[in-house]
Amino acid sequence: MAFPQRLVPLSLLLLALTLYSVSPHGIVRRKIYVIRSTGPHGLVLDATNPSLLTVQYFTGFKPQLWTFEPGSKPGFYYIINESQGKVLDYNRPASWNLVLANRDNSLHQQWNLDSTGKITNAALSKNIDIWGATFTPGTQVGLWHDGDYPNQKFALEEKS
């Protein structure tokens, strides 16, 4: 599968992560992104079920669209879903599955995007991981120990 032309590697995005754009008329808008696996099939992070996030083929629907706001910890961001207006979190304390939650300003909801494509949680220092390295639509997404795994590599694709 060929990736769209507007796919931005995290390493380049980190040099100048712009969270907002300004239209020619001076209207400020938050930039919207898709979080796309760099593994086979280019699956994207999907929050159709906000209590259990998965990867899916890209549809363009709002559960697959994300914005970023600076977190309280330098270099970390809140990742906000366009459909729900809630932030990326994990199902604490029950599991490390990714979920959407109301923002509580904790480190559990803040994420670092590094130059290798890993997205790391501020509280646990664990990475977003496609469970079992199964690059199949509908596979659950959670947190796992840091490693050089293809199922922990993502890129942001600007959609706005």
Automatic annotation (TrEMBL):
Keyword annotations: Signal
Name listed for the protein in its UniProt record: Ricin B lectin domain-containing protein
The organism's place on the tree of life at top rank: Eukaryota
InterPro entries recorded: Ricin_B-like_lectins, Ricin_B_lectin
Record-annotated Ricin B lectin domain positions: 30-157
SUPFAM superfamilies named in the record: Ricin B-like lectins
Signal peptide residue numbers: 1-24
